[in-house]
Design brief:
323 residues, Rossmann fold, six-stranded parallel beta sheet, four-stranded mixed beta sheet, 14 helices, globular
Length: 323
């Protein structure tokens, strides 16, 4: 199967690297041609346009920073839609709006191609090693066709239902991760203010009921001071706003979500849209004069688990139905 990949940023570049590392014939494209050069040096091909990529590849993947960016790549005169046809597959790996991915998916289906929305979760460091989790929203028959490629990029693959379901779940997980980040910032700052040692505080959280994936990753780069998690504040605002939109459409009156959006919008105003998201703790550092750093923590996260073959995750309670 020939794979095309558009969007070689923080996450996309690592996912494309896994595809190439696992022996697939890969064609790449990015607005910044220099981002593609490492892949070209390793044998990948360059596409002169999204249309040319769609014409030459069996499966094309987009991993872009916003729904608007995806729309531009898909719907331009030389976009992917112009080159898609019967038997081809489009996979959207961006974190995007459910309604938008459904709209584009309908256009893809009208061309005779098969759409999949398959965002990832688990952090850039796991994307680099092929150990990231992938949600896939599509027809079951399409899922079966794409599963070998998804296994090359990720470890745990979950078929979430029809197109749009994966994007909805992904936005939800980012909302939860953001809520956890904000509470960790408050916890670490409060413990420092109360005179507790931050190295001891980190271990207390890690061995307790307060532990989480976000603590084991983002707390470390907070305490190091780099705050480098390869994810920026503007992207957080996008994701948690998408979650709020889902709640609004469902008529669910959220209380915590609006406050989180307000806090991160304030962070963007004070520190800039491209500031690393864990530096939201600077709002508390600035307010208290405290320095929330401690020795012995890494500047960035690396995945210490070896790359393992991917596999499909069957939801709890549905195992018997899948057998």
């Amino acid at each position: 199967m020939k794979i095309g990949f558009i969007g070689l940023g923080n996450v996309g570049g690592k996912l494309a690297g896994s595809i190439l590392r696992n022996g697939y014939d890969l064609t790449v494209r990015d607005l910044d041609r220099t981002a593609a050069q490492p892949f070209l040096d390793k044998g990948a091909h360059w596409a002169d346009s999204p249309r040319a990529m769609a014409q030459s590849c069996d499966m094309v993947i987009t991993c872009l920073p916003s729904p608007a960016a995806c729309s531009a790549v898909m719907e331009a005169d030389d976009g992917l839609l112009a080159g898609l046809g019967d038997g081809k597959i489009w996979a959207e790996m961006s974190t995007t709006d459910e309604a938008e991915v459904k709209r584009i998916a309908a256009l893809v289906s009208a061309k005779g191609a098969e759409p999949v929305d398959c965002p990832v979760s688990g952090g850039c460091h796991r994307a680099a090693t092929g150990n990231i989790a992938i949600f896939a929203g599509c027809e079951r028959s399409t899922f079966e066709k794409t599963l070998p490629v998804l296994k090359a990029m990720g470890r745990r693959i979950l078929h979430t239902g029809p197109v749009g379901s994966a994007s909805t779940l992904k936005v939800m997980t980012n909302y939860l991760a953001t809520a956890n980040l904000l509470t960790l910032c408050e916890a670490l700052t409060t413990m420092k203010g109360a005179g507790l040692d931050l190295n001891t505080t980190f271990e207390a959280i890690k061995i307790s009921s307060g532990n989480s994936f976000v603590h084991e990753t983002e707390s470390q780069v907070i305490l190091n001071g780099s705050r480098d998690i390869n994810f920026t504040m503007d992207l957080v605002v996008k994701d948690i706003s998408l979650f709020q939109d889902i709640a609004d459409r469902a008529g669910v009156p959220l209380e915590i979500s609006p406050l989180m959006i307000e806090m991160f919008k304030n962070g963007v105003e004070r520190y800039g849209p491209r500031e690393w998201s864990p530096n939201i703790i600077k709002r508390l550092e600035d307010a208290t004069g405290l320095d929330i750093r401690a020795p012995g923590f890494p500047t960035e996260m690396t995945d210490d688990e070896p790359e393992e073959p991917g596999y499909e995750v069957i939801p709890t309670g549905l195992q018997s139905a899948a057998e």
